[in-house]
């Protein structure tokens, strides 16, 4: 996978975070007020922002084509239900794909700690695996809910519970990292 491609200056850093924040906001505001078609149009716009940011252009072009096909084909509800599946699969591929070279979490860790010790490299590889597996499981749950659950159940999971689970994983990883650092320093 190598080095991550550079996006347009300044866009790479804000576009993913903005999309992650806007997804639940759009889900809880746009869906009840304007319905599934308007929400799918919002998701198309979010995917378009990602494509414009320039990072993973082919992936985001594929997402845009799928969402637009569903929108134009009159399948707005299926389109909104599949959006979190597509995003989680994409993130799982980013995390797990990075294991072929320098794991994504190691790249992030080296931003603040350029001389990461071997124990840190091993730890970041494991954390990258954990996040990749988490995103894969999240995608499978979102897919099952997209296909078989009532819209409100899907909405609660994808717009709240999955974010809570990710936050818990982040907090748990931070606690484990502190313990690993103490153990490594005292070894």
From TrEMBL:
Keyword list (alphabetical) reads:
Membrane, Transmembrane, Transmembrane helix
* Residue stretches spanning the membrane: 20-46, 58-76, 129-148, 154-176
Per the record, the domain of life is: Bacteria
Indicate what this protein is called per its UniProt record.
DNA gyrase subunit B
């Amino acid at each position: 996978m190598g080095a991550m491609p550079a996006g347009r200056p300044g866009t790479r850093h804000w576009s993913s975070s903005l999309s992650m924040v806007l997804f639940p906001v759009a889900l809880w505001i746009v869906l009840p007020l304007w319905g599934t078609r308007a929400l799918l149009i919002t998701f198309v716009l979010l995917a378009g922002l990602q494509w414009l940011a320039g990072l993973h252009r082919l992936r985001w072009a594929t997402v845009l084509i799928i969402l637009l096909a569903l929108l134009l084909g009159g399948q707005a509800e299926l389109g909104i239900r599949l959006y979190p599946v597509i995003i989680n699969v994409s993130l799982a591929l980013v995390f797990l794909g990075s294991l072929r070279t320098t794991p994504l979490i190691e790249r992030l860790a080296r931003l603040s700690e350029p001389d990461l010790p071997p124990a840190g490299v091993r730890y970041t590889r494991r954390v990258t695996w954990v996040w990749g597996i988490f995103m894969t499981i999240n995608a499978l749950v979102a897919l099952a809910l997209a296909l078989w659950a009532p819209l409100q159940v899907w909405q609660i999971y994808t717009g709240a519970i999955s974010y809570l689970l990710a936050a818990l994983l982040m907090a748990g990883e931070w606690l484990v990292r502190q313990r690993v650092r103490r153990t490594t320093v005292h070894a």
